[in-house]
What does this fold into?
Amino acid sequence: MAEKREQFRSRLGFVLAAAGSAVGIGNLVGFPVNAAKSGGAAFLILYAAFVVFICIPVMIAEMSLGRKTQRNPLGAYKAVAGDSSAWRFGGWLSLITPFMIAVFYQVLTVWLLGYFIGAVSGNLEAMSAEGYFGEFINANGVFIYLGVLTLVIGIVLKSGVQNGIERLAKVLMPSLAIMLIALTIFVLTLPNALIGVKYYLVPDFSKINLSTINLALSQAFFSLSLGMGILITYGSYISKRESVAGGAKMVALVDTCVAFFAGLLIFPAIFEFNPAIDTENLSSSSVSLVFTFLPKIFLSLQGLIGYVGASIFASAFFLLVFFAAITSQVSILQVPISAFQDELKYTRLKSVLMLGACAALLVIASMVSFGRIEFFSEFLAYGGKVNSFFDLIYDVFYETILPLNGFIVCLFVTYRWRKSNLDKELITGDEGYDGSFTQRYVNFALSTFVPAILLFVFVSTVLMKFFGISVL
Ligand code: PHE
It folds into this structure.
């Protein structure tokens, strides 16, 4: 028999856990780099507007659906629409998406652990050499890191929502904040820092066009962990005494502040490396940036603070991103775990073990798809090239499907579950919500332009990625 459903111990615990999910590689690396290429503060303003006007309503919808139904995403769709309704499709998507993203993200987290250990053990110079990354990902060491990481994450998830996830977030999130602030302050004292800050904070609106708008929205959506079933699941652990809308706003605020600070950290560091850098040529992939570009930047600091200083800086940075990735990783794995617990009535331990085994197999398949095993390395041809298994997961789940999931949630909540029920759920624990501006805005946005925009983003991404047709 399954255990009784858990709850977050406190509002702070919930906000930290949800912020832990939201703050990840997307904020610390994805955001600054996209901002660097797309007009600095102009991109920031656009991003913040999308967070407020589009993402917060979707976040509120996901959390209330979870809290109302007390279920995982699949169970939530079924609880509202019935077991055989076509809406179940949305539930399945919100279950498969996080599982596959977890596989992809686990690979990145393993690499981050490896880079942290590399920097701590004085290998920074080797790590910034051309070709190091390619060798690193195909060396046997990654499997050891994978084993360690799987064990740690398994223990956290086995310990449950309160004793595992909430406790982890309470330790890691404040440490993350302190490290981020300390690193930022340090970077701001470097000689060329101001050039970077200026580049970041003086808006260049000429860079804003339809495709940067699309980028800002996708970035915001991803960064807030929307469309991954995470907030439906976390919502199911929020107490009925708490304000869902208030929690959502706090999480969005923390996430956006972290992205902003990450910009203040990365921009000056990039310009310190080369004051005349042409940011247009920065790679758009966070992966190649974190693992091939950043080590070079960190190494270049040795002229100012010596090799040991540069290594300490690099270690702190990789540890920071690693912490952020771990809290995201537990949040995303909790989605299928809660589905196993709710739907199949498995105990927590059995769910963790079953899921861990399935995920580990797919993670290994991804890790050997960088040339080790041809079958996985040349998995499928689409978009005009042959793609690896890892690429396929990345393209389908990380880059494409989130807006579709968001679109379905909006329609489901407003038209199937209905706005009056959404209202009722949001008023529970928050009397002030009734009649508020937020209420009117959320109801209007979720039933009109937000799903329309998300559908557009989804269709244009599919056309672009898989058929090479550019709409924007
Ligand atoms: N918000 C996370 C990030 O910025 C996205 C994410 C959450 C990814 C959970 C994977 C798992 O990185």
The pocket of phenylalanine is lined by residues 21-22, 24-27, 101, 105, 222-223, 225, 328-329, 331-332 (CB under 6 Å).
